[in-house]
Amino acid sequence: MSGRGSARRHAQAIFQIARAAGELEKWREELKKVAQAVADPVLSLLLESPRVGLAEKVALLREGLPGADPLVLNYAGLLVARGRQRLAGEIAEEYERLLDAYHGIEHAEVITAVPLEGEEKERLAHRLAEMVGKRVVVEARVDPAIIGGLVARVGDRLLDGSTRTRLELLKKSLSEGGVGLWPPGDMTS
User: Fold this and answer.
1) pTM value?
2) What is the strand order of the sheet 105-112 is part of?
């Protein structure tokens, strides 16, 4: 069972429970706390140790999550019992995506050759929002290798307007003889 797929299934189940209980935001925060707790190096070591019994692991988890909702503790205990506590961070991320989708928010990963300024980032978010019909939150990063333009991934859509890709397409077209920009013999006409 793949980690990402398993995390997605866990997040979907938790999302259904949270939505039915009207506790979507509460679960967002609780899942973050669980992910932080199991990421603690000392607790993580103890939770993964075969020398520590399940009851002790659950007690350690309760100590690491003071004041947590009993359902959240049950969820965390289930992960530990199945040896899947390392998925807690991915589950929290998947839950966050589900919650954003529920609220009509889409995340766009945007790669540019130079950093985007605040106003540029806002305009880009607005343009992408028009394309996908949802509010878009832009998560930008810089990669000088794209030379110019941008590459954006919004959901399952990939928009590649990078200069590097355009140059590669031009090179391919020229090598296949498909462009005919300057055929020899036509210089005198």
Assistant:
1) 0.68
2) 135-142, 105-112, 150-154, 157-160
The pLDDT tens digits for 63-120 are: 989 989 999 999 999 999 998 999 999 999 999 999 998 999 988 999 998 999 989 9
Q: What is the pLDDT of residues 80-93, one digit of tens each?
A: 999 899 999 999 99
Taking alpha carbons only, the member of 131, 166, 135, 164 closest to residue 147 is: 164
Domains assigned to the chain: 3-100 (1.10.520.20), 106-175 (no CATH)
Strand pairing of 135-142 and 105-112? parallel
Q: What confidence score (pLDDT) does residue 186 get?
A: 47
Q: Residue 40 corresponds to which tokens in the numbers above?
A: 């603690």
Q: DSSP states of 97-156 as a string? A: HHHHHHTTEEEEEEEESSPPPHHHHHHHHHHHHHHHTSEEEEEEEE-GGG-SSEEEEETT
Number of H helices, E strands in the chain: 8, 4
Number of neighbouring beta carbons within 10 Å of residue 169: 11
